[in-house]
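<backbone_tokenisation>
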Amino acid sequence: MNKFVTLLATSAIILACNTAPVPATAQDKSAQPTVKSYGEAITPDGAISTAELVKAMSEKDEFAAKVEGEVITSCAMKGCWMDMKLADGSTMKVRFKDYGFFVPTKGLEGKHAVIQGTATREVVDVATLQHYAEDAGKSKEEIEKITEPRTDVMFLADGVLITY
């Protein structure tokens, strides 16, 4: 019996010491970010920065582009829009073509996105601004403070890539 216990203990020690390192390919796969696509299939190739978009929109009222940047928030109700941070400190409302697709309603803050479609400069009326504020989960007091229309860069996206 004593020999059996010794053999069992020795086997356990050998097995415990025989931990092979995780192959590099398995480590790389877990470290790679996940990219999810919404709407039309697009690639990140040829995307311009938000700084380049701001420059282009200073000269035009409409600009077809593929743009990459940081997501600030998304519609908390349906995911029917998202806000992206522009290089000049303002935000750009991104809506989705024909209301044909949606993005997640939460968890997008700070994520990297590539969007493809058309940017336009639009005057957004008070009712629409209040609606967006409500969708974003703003308080009644914050919504009531919106009393004037605003001119914004808006983006109608055909496709979106978000890196998680």
Observations:
- Strands lie at 35-39, 48-49, 62-74, 81-85, 91-96, 112-124, 150-163.
- Residues 135 and 158 are 21 Å apart (CA to CA).
